[in-house]
Amino acid sequence: MELLCASPNAVLGVKDGEEGSRVVAWLPLIFLGGGRLPRMEKVKEIVERLLREDERCRNDDKWLTYRVMREFTRIFIPFTDFENIPAFATVKRVRAKIQNSEGRFLPTDLKVRIRRGLQEKEMRELMRVK
After folding, report:
1. Beta strand pairing status for 23-28 and 11-15?
2. Residue spans per domain, the chain
3. pLDDT (tens place) for every residue of the chain, 130 residues total
């Protein structure tokens, strides 16, 4: 597989490795800044600023997520459409429940298994320290 980037802030394409192959997925670069995941501290700074500046962010997680997304990408989705998308955390929790609790449809890529374990450890440490 090969990763393609249409523009630094637009979409990420995933292409299978064979010559003349097609793009198999285009993903919004919601949390990819400059090709890498932002540090948790950067996200925290943005969330704190939004909570301070926009009262609606304090009361509406969807609106907060929407505003954070807009900080990392130029992709525009009208909020009325974004509102209908399940929360990213909900999708992740359901996937985790299916894989971790039920033991079904486990990741087939060892790198994914390792990365998820490291991210979980990093998040626990960050939440414990602060």
Report:
1. antiparallel
2. 86-130
3. 444 444 444 444 444 445 454 544 444 444 444 445 568 889 999 999 999 999 999 999 999 999 999 998 888 899 999 999 998 889 989 998 998 888 888 888 888 878 877 677 777 777 776 5
**Cα–Cα distance for residue pair 101/74, rounded to 1 Å:** 36
At 7 the three-state DSSP class reads coil
CB proximity list for 68: less than 8 A, separation 6 or greater:
43, 46, 47, 50
Does the predicted TM-score (pTM) go above 0.85? no
| Nearest alpha carbon to residue 61 among 42, 47, 78, 76 | 47
Who contacts 121 (Cβ-Cβ below 8 Å, separation ≥6)?
none
User: Distance between CA atoms of 47 and 64, rounded to whole angstroms?
Assistant: 8
> Which is it for the CA torsion 127, 29, 47, 61, positive or negative?
negative
